[in-house]
Specification:
With about 425 residues, the protein is α/β, with parallel strands linked by helices. It folds into 2 domains: about 30-265 and about 320-415, TIM Barrel (Alpha-Beta Barrel); about 270-315. It has helices at about 1-35, 45-50, 70-75, 95-110, 120-130, 150-160, 185-200, 210-220, 245-250, 265-285, 295-310, 320-335, 360-370, 375-405, and strands spanning about 35-40, 80-85, 115, 135-140, 160-165, 200-205, 225, 255-260, 340. Strands 1, 2, 3, 4, 5 and 6 form a 6-stranded parallel beta sheet that branches. A 3-stranded parallel beta sheet has the order 7-8-9. Helix 6 (about 150-160) links the parallel strand 4 and strand 5 (about 160-165). The radius of gyration is 23 Å and the shape is globular. The termini are far apart. This is Putative dipeptidase. One of its GO terms (biological process) is proteolysis. InterPro entries: Metal_Hydrolase (IPR032466), Pept_M19 (IPR008257).
């Protein structure tokens, strides 16, 4: 009897190993044939917004292991073919913002065998074919576009190809974590959506309110994306996307690029950060109302109290399986043709177990494969869905440029945050 049990367990183990190898081979094949396009990252933070910043490219080389989530070896290991990279400056002044553009151009020049600035779907495909990683310039706010639409056109010619309409706080759209003032998109925001359609800039609806999402989906004549968001039905936060909006996204032909940010992935993690931890912060704010006036002893005591609280209240564990639940949910609701991946690497501290950096993309693909996702479905997720949207945006722009003139609306003062 014991021998039968032993051989039964051995057979199960061998079958499991064979299955693991089969999954690994399939994921490798997917990433070889359809390298992943990551919907969002904040790589420039290591040159602009770090403790030692501003710093030069040699101070944070990408051809070796870095302290962040992204470097060239890990991008290669993760099967990454292109990145929508957020271009930003140290402040809101245009000259500061242009320094970010200078950095991204110089990064591409510094690593010409590995990186290429890509401003069309054709260039993205060509870069991947030649073994380089495409950088698709994006913007995670509209601070620098508030004067007039001429700025949008100028940045398009510089290479801008995707824009988020607001970054949590209000701008031309109501931000997800701000008190609404526009009831969705502002009048100028609606004009900007139409001009983005005409230019061929991808509209990104991450970070804005549900009403703003619905306004944009009603107005746009080209597909849109959510570059880094999850399903609100699984994790109820304004930053995620409701079923109502997802169904509209399907009608639009757009894509939600699901993100491994810890607190957008499970309700437990979200509540930990935005309910439980917030309540503790309020207690600390009352106890230490003016940090600038704190003595060394008070600072030390506050640090000890905070560490004691964190030790007694550990961060919830969020796994690749939790992340995969969002893929299954969205697939069942609107279909696999509307799903991608947007990491938010280098823009978030709290990522999930198994998705800690750019080398980890095969982990989520393996989990999906083990759940029955096919090779053709995984290729849609890694790049085909996004490229379809990019090409549709370009095609619509060609049509509009033949039939419409550049829009010249000026921003009203109440639209400026």
């Amino acid at each position: 009897m014991k021998e039968h049990i032993f051989f039964g367990l051995l057979l199960i183990s061998l079958l499991g190993c064979k299955s693991d190898r089969s999954t690994e081979k399939m994921v490798h094949r997917v990433l070889q044939e359809a390298p992943l396009i990551d919907g969002h990252n904040d790589l420039l933070i290591h040159y602009i917004w770090c403790g030692e910043c501003p710093r030069e490219l040699d101070a944070y080389p990408l051809d070796t292991a870095t302290s962040g989530h992204i470097d060239l070896p890990r991008l290669r290991k993760g099967g990454v073919g292109a990145l929508l990279t957020n271009i930003f400056g140290r402040g809101r002044q245009m000259n500061e913002y242009l320094q970010g553009w200078d950095l991204i151009y110089r990064l591409a020049e510094k690593y010409p065998e590995d990186l290429q600035l890509t401003t069309s779907s054709k260039e993205v495909r060509q870069a991947m074919k030649e073994g380089r990683i495409g950088i698709i310039p994006s913007m995670e706010h509209t601070y620098h576009l508030v004067d007039d639409l001429g700025r949008l056109r100028t940045l398009y010619h510089l290479g801008l190809r995707s824009v988020i309409l607001a970054y949590d706080t209000n701008n031309i759209a109501d931000g997800a974590y701000d008190k609404p003032v526009h009831d969705g998109l502002s009048a100028y925001g609606k004009e900007m959506v139409l001009e983005m359609n005409r230019l061929g800039i991808i509209i990104d609806l991450s970070h804005i309110t549900e009403k703003g999402m619905l306004d944009a989906l009603e107005i746009t004549t080209a597909p849109v994306i959510f570059s880094h968001a999850n399903a609100r039905a699984l994790t109820d936060t304004q930053r995620n996307v409701s079923d109502k909006v997802l169904l509209k996204l399907k009608e639009n032909g757009g894509v939600i690029m699901l993100t491994p940010v810890n607190y957008f992935t499970t309700q437990e993690a979200y509540d930990y950060f935005f309910v439980k931890m917030d309540s503790v912060r309020k207690v600390f704010d009352e106890r230490y109302p003016d940090p600038d006036q704190m003595t060394d002893e008070e600072i030390e005591r506050a640090d000890e109290e905070w560490m004691a609280w964190e030790s007694a209240n550990p961060l919830p564990v969020v796994t690749v399986k939790d992340f995969a639940d969002h893929f299954d949910y969205v697939k069942n609701l609107i279909g696999v043709d509307h799903i991608g991946i947007g990491s938010d690497f280098d823009g978030m501290t709290y990522l999930i177990e198994g998705m800690e950096d750019a080398s980890a993309f095969p982990h989520i693909l393996s989990e999906l494969a083990n759940r029955g996702w096919t090779e053709s479905e995984l290729k849609k997720v890694t790049q085909q869905n996004f490229l379809r949207v990019f090409e549709a945006v370009e095609q619509r722009a060609e049509e509009l440029k033949r039939s419409t003139n550049p829009r010249t609306a000026k921003v009203p003062t109440q639209d400026v945050d």
